[in-house]
Amino acid sequence: MDFKVKKFKKITDERGDLVVFLGQSQLPSSVKLFGQIYFVTFSRKGVVRGNHYHKKWREWFGLIEGEVHVKLRDVNTNELKEMTLSSATNEYVRLEVGPYVTHSFKCLSNNAQLLNYANGEWEASDCYRDVILA
Q1: Any residues with CB less than 8 A from the CB of 16 and at least 6 apart, and which?
Q2: Which residues pair with 73 in a beta bridge?
Q3: First to last CA, the chain
Q4: Quick one: which of 98, 41, 48, 80 has its CA closest to 64?
Q5: pLDDT one-digit tens code per residue, 34-55
Q6: Rounded Cα distance, 53 and 108, in Å
Q7: pTM
Q8: Closest alpha carbon to 76 in 53, 50, 58
Q9: By CB neighbour count within 10 A (0-12 exposed, 13-18 middle, 19+ buried), where does 78 fall?
C-alpha cells in the first residue's frame, strides 16, 4: 500500500508550537510542482471526512488539532491499515497517501482540523467514492 507516516518534533516555547509540515527537499522530483493546500475541519465528534481515493493525486495530511481515527485501503489489493492521530502528543505526524489508496478520517474529539497538501488541484473527475469508514 502506498502510504508513509513520518513523526517529527514540535518546536515549542511559551508562545506555542512551530512545525515544518513539508519542505520542498522532502518531495520527490515527480511531485515538486505546486498543487494546492487546504484545511479540513470536523465540526463534532463522529464526523467522517474522506471516504474516497484519487488516481492522480498524492496527498500529505497533518493533524493540527483534535484526534481522528484513520482508515486506509489499497483499492488494488484490498489491504487495510488503521491508526489514530492525536494533536495531544510531543510529536506531529504527517501522513502521506498515494494514488489508489482510499483515505477516511473519523473525528474522535469534539472537533478536529487537518492540514492537507496535494500535488494537484482538485478535480471532480479524479475523486472516487469508496466508503470504508462510517
Answers
A1: none
A2: 80, 102
A3: 21
A4: 41
A5: 788 898 999 999 999 999 999 9
A6: 22
A7: 0.85
A8: 53
A9: exposed
